[in-house]
Amino acid sequence: MKAKRPIRTGKLAPLFYSVWANRGKYGTFYTVTFDRVYLHRHPKTGAKEFRYTKSFTLADLVLIATAADLAFDFINHYQLLKNLKQHQPRFVDHAKLKKPPP
C-alpha cells in the first residue's frame, strides 16, 4: 500500500503544518496537523538531535493561528480549483451551429 502524503506542508519556524485530504463516506474532507521541532541534547552523551512534538508554548500559539489561517486559505482555494476543473465550461463554436430558419 502506498504511503499517504500531505497535499500541502508549510513551515513557520519552529512550527510545521500539513494539510491532508481524506476520503470519507460523504466525499473528501481535509485535516490539518501541527508539529513543533526542537533541539534535544542527550543528558549523558551530549549528542544533539532534532525532535518533534505536538505540545506548544504560549509563543507558539500565535504561529499556530497564522498557520491555521494559511491552511484554511489553501483548503478553500484548493477546493475551488478542484470544483472548477470538474465543471469546466465547454467551448461552443457558434459559427458551426445551425442557424434557425427565419
Report on this model:
This protein has 102 residues and is an alpha+beta fold. It has one domain (8-86). 28% of the residues lie in helices and 35% in strands. It is built from one helix and four strands. The chain has one helix at 58-86, and strands at 8-12, 15-24, 27-41, 48-53. Strands 1-2-3-4 form a four-stranded antiparallel sheet, covered by helices on one side. Strand 2 (15-24) and strand 3 form a beta hairpin. The mean pLDDT is 87.
Radius of gyration: 23 Å
- Name the average pLDDT: 87
Strand order of the largest sheet: 1-2-3-4
**Helical content (DSSP H or I, runs of 4+):** 25-40%
How many strand elements?
Answer: 4
Strand content: 35-45%
Largest sheet: 4 strands, antiparallel
End-to-end distance, in Å? 63 Å
Number of individual domains: 1
Query: What structural class should be given to the helix and strand makeup?
Result: alpha+beta
Enumerate how many helices there are, as a single number: 1
Bulk shape = elongated
Query: Stretches where pLDDT falls below 50 for ≥5 residues?
Result: none
> What sequence of helices (H) and strands (E) makes up the elements?
EEEEH
